[in-house]
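=== Per-residue structure ===
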Amino acid sequence: MLVINILIAAFSLTATLAAFGGDTWDKDEPVITKRINLRGWVSLLSIVIAFSLGVYKEIHTHHESIKKDNASEILRSELKSSRDQIQESAKKIATLESSLSARQSEINAQVMVIENLQKELQRQQQDLADKTDSLSIETNSLARKQLSSIESAFRLAIATVPEVDNWVLNLNGSRLQRIPSRKYDQMQLHWGDSFKFVMFPSDYSTSDLSTLKLVAGDNKYPLHSGNGNSFFEETIRVYGSTPKAMPAYVENPMGLTGVKIKIFVRSSDSTRGQKEFKKLVTSSEFFSIAKDIYKTTTAGLLRLRSEASTQSQILSQLPKGSFVRVVQNVGSWSEIVTPEGRQGWVASKFLAIIE
């Protein structure tokens, strides 16, 4: 556009200079076209060219203005569209932020619930651990008590049992007082047992003491004859109708207190100790432990040796079915203890689980 402006200015200047430089036409020529001389034609052409360039400039400027207007309109439309899109995006972002905020609130609530559940779980786990520890302690205590009872019965698991139970009973005024035991919660009597007792002197008369009775099964046995003084010693033979054990009680109708009675129980069954021991082992809640500690012999006569060797000294010979307690196992040998207290080594292959 700068070039056109320069050309317009140049041709306008040329036309002006041609017109002012002298005459541009001859008056004497009759024909109009012949009247115009060279100066006139130069001036006229310069004016026409300058006019044409001016027209072209205006048309070009107008077209450019239209293009600019159209471009501006398109730009405004695009800007408006972009603004609308931005606003729509802003609405969507605001909606998403609101949704995210709500979701975050839900997540925070769920996190709090999870934390509370974790705390509750930890508390329950701690309670369970405490209960497990307590149960373990109780179980260990019960196991020790059971194994202690089994060990007490083991010492009596011999062919001849001079004494199966004993206790020192102090009357507490109860009308029917159970007699405790060294092996059980309560003393058990069988038919044929000898119930030997010694009643020590007290402030009660012999007539009062004569009211005391031993109760075993359906039978009652007087514990004092009513004669002599308060010191009294006697042996009662226990009778019964079945071989089952009978719990032992003292009947005390007058509610006497402070009377001391020392009791010894002997059995007429030479194998009773073995039977009771076997019953304790096989019926124990801790049989899985007891079966590895207590064994029975399977050989006709099992040699008890001083060391774990067939060349060592023979201490004794154990008949088949004898009960032993295993102290330790070394290779194919086991160190054992018998109910009588003899200790030595036997071949492990001749020991079996008590069943």
